[in-house]
Amino acid sequence: MQMKRRTFLQAALGTAFFSGCSPICATSGGRFGKRPNVVFILADDLGYAELGCYGQTRIRTPNIDRLAAEGMRFTQHYSGSPVCAPSRCTLMTGLHTGHSYVRDNREMGGWERGAREGQLPLPAQTVTLPELLQAEGYHTGAMGKWGLGGPDSTGEPNQQGFDQWFGYLCQRIAHNYYPEHVWKNQTKYLLKNNYFSAHQKFPPDKDPNDPASYESYAGIEYAPDLMTEEALSFIRANQNRPFFLYLPYPIPHVSLQVPEDSLREYEGAFPETPYLGERGYLPHRTPRAAYAAMVTRMDGYVGRILALLGELHLDNDTLVFFSSDNGPTFNGGTDSAFFNSAGPLRDLKGSVYEGGIRVPMIARWPGRIKAGSTTDHSSAFWDVLPTVMEAAGAPSAIPKNIDGISFLPTLLGRNDQRRHDYLYWEYHSGGGRQAVRMGDWKGVRLQVGKGNRKIELYNLKEDIGETTNVADKYPDIVTQIARIMEAARTESEHFHFGRK
Known about the structure:
Helices cover about 25% and strands about 15% of the residues. It is of the alpha/beta class and about 500 residues long.
């Protein structure tokens, strides 16, 4: 028989974990004694420079820009990994990929229709952020894309601390925005969409310039719209008690699919060449417009969330975050060069150079976070768990063995912010890759699984684009980073350098 979650947490973390609200709790909300609600909105494959507040000029994001104008914008925040599942694992657990259970995308099924859904599931005993908040009296909900365990697995959201779940459990199914089904808690929720594969090339007998040729790649119910409606209902239902809302939207991860009303906003805005499926995923007649429209539609969802918080007078009681799970993608008809998606950063999704892991991060908490502020504090996804728990007035509930450090002092403008000695990443595809950020120094080692021991070294303060390897000039720094790369990780039963 599995140990019940609350019993396990009591055993693992001690009785102080359930001792109730700390003095922080009494002053952290907008009203005396009220703990803040927390909303964490996560985009999928959104690049560092794909928001207006981060320099984007071709894609409109007025609501997210407003979030930054009313809160704090981070310039040196990092995702947990350069790809989806491990990045989300670090966010939920406070462990970087040298210690986390999920360190790469690991499929549990195939691409054929009816195949087993899901990726490598979190074990039952995993301690997650929503579980910690549940134990503090929070109602927890998640709507979006999960990727940490499919149906009937130990990794299901409802098994990992979420009272309510709606969305894709499986990342493969999330490649289609008009799926046959999503999951509502542990029940398959059927949609009014016909089945079609999310990976197919354009038929050679059709005209690529004819809009009618693409009609079969759309459906009736657009999954992110439904996720947003579920999120709004969750907020309304929990407006009188503390809640944690996790919104991991699948946008703008390909396939390129967006309802026509959003596509019309960018009609004729860019030079276009139809995408015919040559680099995977679904074809689209105007791929640039579709991509921009997807991001802007997600921005509209953010606007609706913010509007409802205001309508319910929850603004001052709610800490809202917005970020992305990794850098911008390179396939499926996307054009990261055209949109300058990574800005000055090197590389894209799947890379441990800055473009693959440095992501936008915005936090808003009116009356607590200074409006229009910016920070260069170096932080990462594994810092979110301790930050949220401290904001919730429960610092004693933060597990002792995590890698994260709360950045709440930075959010509140205090001068007692602790800093990391280093940030560490490992990624097991592509031969195995490691990266270390140590102050302004960045070390990168590629082909680790093939025995490569050579480390590239970059000074990010002088060379944010990682264009000049200065390893030969600073051998002592390289030695320090090499030691970190060895010491910062433990072996994993599933992920070993040299084999996936």
